[in-house]
């Protein structure tokens, strides 16, 4: 199976989509959720969805924002590591549940939502939900069209 993109990135083919995506990004990042939490949520959802382009860009963006290698390396096993705060764990649990909607009959159980609500206010929860949905949006576009992670040398 070829790893080449099936088509150019749809946002490049439909430039009006870029404006909508930029508005979603701005809304999610303006509600007070710490930037590193949004970076971790994006990266974890992208790992689950197998979106190589988003995993690559997400890890690089998180590193640029000051995220440590130790936490990035452990993200897929966040439950079994001591590296994440309770608020980050709540956001990651919400991201996993909202990304794996079909895995259980109660897609986002009350205990997952309630734990997130203990750490984030209503606007912050709205931003997290919007950011998780936006990440899944990107993941599905990139996976469907086989957008590859860029090759980085050196």
UniProtKB/TrEMBL annotation:
- One Pfam annotation reads CMD
Record InterPro entries: AhpD-like (IPR029032), AhpD_core (IPR004675), CMD-like (IPR003779)
Q: Which residues form the Carboxymuconolactone decarboxylase-like domain?
A: 15-97
Is Lipid metabolism one of the keywords? no
Molecular-function annotations in GO: peroxiredoxin activity
Tell me the domain of life. Answer: Bacteria
Keywords in alphabetical order, please.
Oxidoreductase, Peroxidase
Q: What is this protein called?
A: Alkylhydroperoxidase AhpD family core domain-containing protein
Organism field: Micromonospora narathiwatensis
Classification from the root reads: Bacteria, Bacillati, Actinomycetota, Actinomycetes, Micromonosporales
């Amino acid at each position: 199976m070829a790893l080449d993109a099936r088509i150019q990135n749809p946002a490049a083919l439909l430039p009006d989509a870029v404006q909508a995506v930029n508005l979603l990004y701005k809304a999610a990042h303006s509600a007070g959720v710490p930037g590193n939490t949004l970076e971790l949520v994006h990266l974890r959802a992208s790992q689950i969805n197998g979106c190589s382009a988003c995993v690559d860009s997400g890890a690089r963006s998180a590193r640029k924002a000051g995220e440590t290698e130790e936490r990035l390396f452990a993200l897929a096993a966040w439950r079994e590591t001591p590296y994440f705060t309770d608020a980050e764990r709540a956001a990651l649990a919400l991201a996993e549940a909202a990304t794996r909607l079909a895995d259980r009959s109660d897609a986002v159980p009350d205990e997952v939502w309630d734990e997130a609500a203990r750490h984030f206010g209503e606007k912050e929860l709205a931003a997290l939900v919007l950011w998780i949905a936006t990440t899944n949006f990107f993941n599905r576009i990139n996976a469907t069209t086989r957008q590859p992670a860029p090759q980085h040398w050196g």
